[in-house]
Amino acid sequence: MITAGLGYIVQCNHTTLVNTVNLAPADLPKESGRFDLPIALGILAASQQMPADTLERYEFAGELSLSGELRPIRGALAMTYAMHHRGDQNRQQRAFILPRMNADEAALVADVTILPADSLLQVCAHFAAHDPDARLQRHVATPVTALPDYPDLAEVKGQAQAKRALEVAAAGGHSVLMVGPPGTGKSMLAKRFAGILRPMTDEEALESAAVQSLTSGFSSARWKLRPFRAPHHTASGVALVGGGGTPRPGEISLAHHGLLFLDELPEFHRSVLEVLREPLESGHITISRAARQADFPAQFQLIAAMNPCPCGYLGHTSNRCRCTPDLIARYQGKISGPLLDRIDMQIQVGALPHEDLLKQADGESSAGIAMRVAHAAATQLARQGKPNHALTGNEIELHCQPDNSGEQLLRTAMSRLNWSARAYHRVLKVARTIADLGNESTISKPHVAEAIQYRRALREQ
Ligand SMILES: [Zn+2]
Questions:
Q1: How far is the CA of 311 from the centre of ligand 1 (A)?
Q2: Is 269 helix (H, G, I), strand (E, B) or coil?
């Protein structure tokens, strides 16, 4: 009996004429070439060409070529991460034998022993050798010491208000919709957003890398770099949230602990956008296909962008918008109220005046903003153990109570703008973040007033 990757068992019975290979458990999918190596070893052990008892202390995964070379597989890091995460009692004693090409990513989980091999012959020699030098050697991951390199916000000219809003979004983990004419730097701002977020923890980096390894999209050069996923508006629901015959993670999971940037939001198919509602609240997605069910993490921060109207120039200083009110309403209406409700902040990114366009970029660098963000994020963790965006029900009452003048302003805004209870709570959470950035324990009127501004870029809800 041989364990092949996590949760799978390969059993081989040898008679004079046939080998029977049994892969268990029966109800889990077994596509992928990663079973080649355990099957080959199972046959060798069943036919007594190698000792079966020593194999039990190992896990194996790898695809074999016809000449016996080991080829890389998908999900190597996900396998070692699962072993680490479930607190496997035997993980210290058990070793993982994997194709050499997968060793770097798998060894990112430091407490699992990785023995990389190039071929089936090398694996067999490992078990036959008396000489320790002939055995497979433990792979130690090369530590990645370079800091993640993100483009800098200082490269974006003007847009001080939008940058301030992004600072608030980064500090509290709030989702953002940027509304503005084409060419105002919405995409540039989004691409620089990851650079002001607090650095990833080891655990976050591992989780994010493990999901990416499932689609062979992870390279150890991207270690601790927050993922930035920007699917095109023609993306299908399956591409966005995951799915397929054998469920694979979609863009929202590949953006786990990173950013999902949806440019031209109204151009996405409405049904595709609606499936975002659940993971935006819960941070994970369950995909059910016939008898199979897969649960993928999806704690992404949503950054969306759109034009204010079909021509793009509504409210523009020099270009005139030619859209009728009806067209504008229909365009903005492509984003449903319930989805809009779940986006914490909606901000306007206006066209730059001509004199600003000619100026050199002179804004604050990402590093300076990131320091304030990190401080505010640490305040939240110390107070409530989670970022402000993740506060729910009672926690909002406990941690986000404004003072009297703040509360009065909020109640007026709520009745005038006809907000839902959900929108009301979101404004409170954003106000909490604004107070945290200012190092204030009490949420007062200016914090509430700024938070209200971040919900007025589109039609009033
Ligand atoms: Zn227009």
A1: 4
A2: coil
455 alpha carbon to ligand 1 midpoint, in Å? 21
Cis peptide before 25 (omega within 30 of 0): yes
Residues of the chain with CATH 3.40.50.300: 153-453
Residue type, 391: L
- Report the separation in Å between the CA atom of 181 and the middle of ligand 1, taken as the mean of its atom positions: 9
- Expressed in angstroms and rounded, the spacing between residue 193 Cα and the centre of ligand 1 is 28
**Closest to 55 (Cα-Cα) out of 6, 5, 2:** 2
Neighbour count for residue 36 (Cβ, 10 Å): 20
324 alpha carbon to ligand 1 midpoint, in Å?
8
Task: Decide yes or no: CATH 3.30.230.10 for domain 9-134.
Answer: yes
- Of the candidates 135, 168, 59, 117, the residue with the CA atom closest to the CA atom of residue 453: 168
Say if residue 16's pLDDT is above 80.
no
Tell me which of 43-47, 200-204, 212-216, 381-385 is least confident.
212-216
Q: Which CATH class is domain 153-453?
A: alpha beta
Q: Considering the chain, what is the average pLDDT of its residues?
A: 86
Residues of the chain with CATH 3.30.230.10: 9-134
307 CA to centre of ligand 1 in angstroms: 9
Alpha carbon of 328 to ligand 1 centroid (Å): 7
Q: Report the candidate in 410, 444, 446, 442 with the shortest Cα–Cα distance to residue 427.
A: 410
Measured in Å, residue 452 CA sits from the centre of ligand 1 at 25
Determine the distance separating the centroid of ligand 1 and the alpha carbon of 47, expressed in angstroms. Answer: 75
Distance CA 111, CA 252 (A): 29
Q: Under 8 Å CB-to-CB from 71, ≥6 apart: which residues?
A: 33, 62, 63, 64, 65, 99, 101
